[in-house]
Automatic annotation (TrEMBL):
InterPro entries: Epimerase_deHydtase, Lipid_A_modif_metabolic_enz, NAD(P)-bd_dom_sf. Pfam families: Epimerase. It comes from the Bacteria. Residues 4-210 form the NAD-dependent epimerase/dehydratase domain. It comes from Paraflavisolibacter caeni. This is NAD-dependent epimerase/dehydratase family protein.
Length: 318
């Protein structure tokens, strides 16, 4: 049995599809799980409760912790340490391997232009502090030999769901509105294509000698500037590459009315500097080539247009 904790998100959904190549039994866990594959086992659980986390993990060979919580600092501070503790304890009890899907918020900004698995840990945001704390919880258990686990990390997402890029750039362009970028449109910014991230996670989870270390998931290795990303999406969508840049101060003001901008403000340093995410360790180990920027952009625009057409058809049929 392979179990996905946080099975309703973009990564969890993609991972469920990928795991069919490796496992006959796949358990999907969330507060309100839904099947991805016909033979999925569903389990509803609140992972902040130790007994529910224990029941969700019991009988698992491999557990993937890929949950998403509200993008809110206070929620992260309260919820994430609880979830990590409960999941680690349950995995140890049931002798399950743990794969933790992480991000790069804990990395030292001085090394943002060349992030590798060895990049120093020095978070400068409250969310980054939380991420550093829970990653260290896992690594401490691995160091003692009490847990077999790995951390897999991605850059910001490019995809249809759970992608700030899609929400602020692509959807606006498709509505013939100005794309929104943050801080500096001339800085490089790497993106991890969600299907690549899901496939990479499945590969790593089912590679025994990949455990007890950190891996960067396959990420588009042609980083573009914000302006280049906007131009690429606009060309694919058949619109003009119009955009506006939100400064940190403007994000603070607008955050009074748009809560997510208030939460993003502390992360804006990632747009003030070149942000380059290196996944060569994974690519070389598994002879894997991530999608190109053009392939990722074409996929996202095509899928969003398809969703819009299907929604319009439902209204017409009704």
């Amino acid at each position: 049995m392979q179990t996905i904790l946080g099975a309703k998100g973009a990564i969890g959904t993609g991972l469920a599809k990928e795991l069919t190549s490796y496992a006959n039994k796949i358990r999907l866990v969330s507060r309100r799980p839904k099947k991805v594959n016909d033979n999925d086992f569903l389990f509803a659980a609140d992972l902040t409760k130790p007994e529910e986390a224990d029941e969700a993990i019991a009988g698992s060979e491999i557990v993937y912790l890929a949950i998403g919580t509200d993008y809110n600092t206070k929620v992260w501070q309260q919820v994430w340490p609880l979830i990590m503790r409960n999941v680690i304890d349950a995995c140890k009890k049931h002798n399950a391997k743990l794969v933790f899907f992480d991000n790069m918020y804990m990395y030292d900004p001085d090394y943002l232009n060349n992030m590798t698995e060895d990049t120093p840990i020095r978070p400068v945001s409250k969310k980054g502090v939380v991420r550093a704390e829970i990653a260290q919880m896992l690594l401490n258990e691995v160091k003692t030999g009490a847990l077999t686990a790995m951390i897999v990390r991605s850059a910001d997402f490019i995809g249809v769901q759970n992608s700030a890029l899609t929400e602020t750039v692509v959807k606006n362009l498709l509505k013939r509105k100005k794309a929104i970028w943050f801080a500096n449109v001339n800085k490089l910014h790497s993106y991890t294509f969600i299907p690549d991230a899901a496939r990479g996670t499945a590969i790593l989870g089912n590679t025994p000698d990949a455990y007890n270390q950190v891996w960067h998931l396959p990420t588009i290795n042609e980083p573009l500037t914000g302006k280049q990303w906007i131009e690429l999406f606009a060309k694919e969508a058949g619109v003009k590459p119009r955009y506006q840049v939100l400064s940190k101060n403007m994000m603070g003001i607008l955050g009074l009315f748009v809560p997510v901008l208030k939460e993003l403000k502390e992360m804006v340093y990632q747009y003030e500097l070149d942000y380059v995410f290196d996944s060569s360790k994974f690519e070389e180990r598994f002879q894997y080539k991530p999608v190109s920027p053009q392939e990722a952009v074409a996929y996202v625009v095509r899928e969003l247009k398809k969703e819009k057409a299907e929604a319009k058809k439902k209204i017409t049929d009704y």
